[in-house]
Structures are given as C-alpha cells and as structure tokens.
What we know:
By secondary structure, this protein is an alpha+beta fold. It has one domain. The chain contains three helices and four strands. The protein has a four-stranded antiparallel beta sheet, covered by helices on one side. The mean pLDDT is about 75.
Amino acid sequence: MPTLIRLLALAFLVIGALFLRSLMHGDRKVDTYYAALRADLRMVARAQSAHLSARRRYARSLDSLAAGRFGNGDLHLSEGVRITITHADEYRWEAVATHTQLPTRCVYRDTAPPRSVPSFSDFRRFCESPP
C-alpha cells in the first residue's frame, strides 16, 4: 500500500511540474512576441532617422522607408507583426505596432531632432490593452 501512495504522490509531482513548465513557457512566448515588436519598431526608428536626415521629414509609410537607401529595400517585419505609421511630418512621427498573438497595441512617438535610436528598455510602457 505505501508503494501505491508513493506512486500517486510521484504522479502528482510530475503533473504539477509539467503544468508549471507550461505556464512558464507561455510567458516566454509572450516575451518573444514583445521582442519581435521591439526589434521591428527599432528598425523602423532607424530608417525614419535616416529618412529625416536625407529628406528633412519623416516617411509617411513603410513602403517609402523600404524603398531606396533608407531601408536598403530590406525593411521586413517579423512574422505576425504589423506596423502602421499613423502620423509623419518634419517634426515628429508616430506608429502603431500590433502582433497577431498579443491583445495589445503599442504606440511609439518620436520627435525631431531624433533622439538616439531608442533603447526600448521599458517597451511595454508603449503598449496598451484594447478598449
């Protein structure tokens, strides 16, 4: 009988460990999605800075950033990431970034002269839950 109790206790420990691992793995996925948003917004910020230097205004679309020397034609977003430039002029630009696997949208704003390329160290402060 004690062997049966030990086996049941071991089974519960294994099931509990697997459950905790799955919870932790879910957080890593979310962190990965935020990392993709952060990296893609950083790439757009660098391209916007180059565009401002050359044209004295920020680009109004990702297409104009990807064309020519500003994005070197290599402005590809990560899978699931969508970035829309919602405002751009000679003074500032704003973009909204979303990921298909996240319920949030991240809004980034920058002004001229551009700060150094943002570190995005506290990236989630740019993000908000949907209404």
